[in-house]
Amino acid sequence: ESLGNLSNPGVYALAISRKRLAGGPFEWRSDIAYFGMTNSMAGLKGRLKQFDNTIIGKSGHGGAQRFMHDYKSAQELAPSLYVAVWAFACDVRSNQSKDLVIMGRVAKAEYECFAKYVELHHQLPKYNDKKNSPKR
To answer: pLDDT tens digits for 21-69?
Structure first.
């Protein structure tokens, strides 16, 4: 809730760290465990809520199911889980060219995050690697 622009679409990064990361600048850390994106009307807030719901035992987020393969409960995962967001201002309900272009940029940005992470760390984030990270 303290992050801004959560009603917008965007890209998010989830890191698992024993080090306190809250409030610091974004870094391409090796402990980033997942990148995701959304162009939904619920924005980043809705997508992150789906993640929260999944780690407490509901459904709705495939990436969160991969986390729960390694963590038995939300209580075990939450203290070391950090989120960073990159919001894109646009109207996802619009069919106007400018909004469609921005929604395309959101999808492109997620892949650019994958590419940068692989460039730096020589692999995908753990829970984006579907071959090596099963769902619970």
So the answer is: 988 899 999 999 999 999 999 999 999 999 988 888 887 788 888 888 8
The DSSP code sequence of 79-118 is GGEEEEEEE----TT---HHHHHHHHHHHHHHHHHHHHHH
Cα–Cα dist 103/93, whole Å: 11
Report the first-to-last Cα separation within the chain, whole angstroms: 27
Question: What b/e sequence results for 115-128 when a residue is b if at least 16 CB atoms lie within 10 Å of its CB, and e otherwise?
Answer: eebeeeeeebbbbb
- For 54, phi and psi rounded to 5 degrees? -65, -40
Each residue of 104-134: pLDDT tens digit? 999 999 999 999 999 999 999 999 998 877 6
Dist. CA 90–CA 96, nearest whole Å: 10
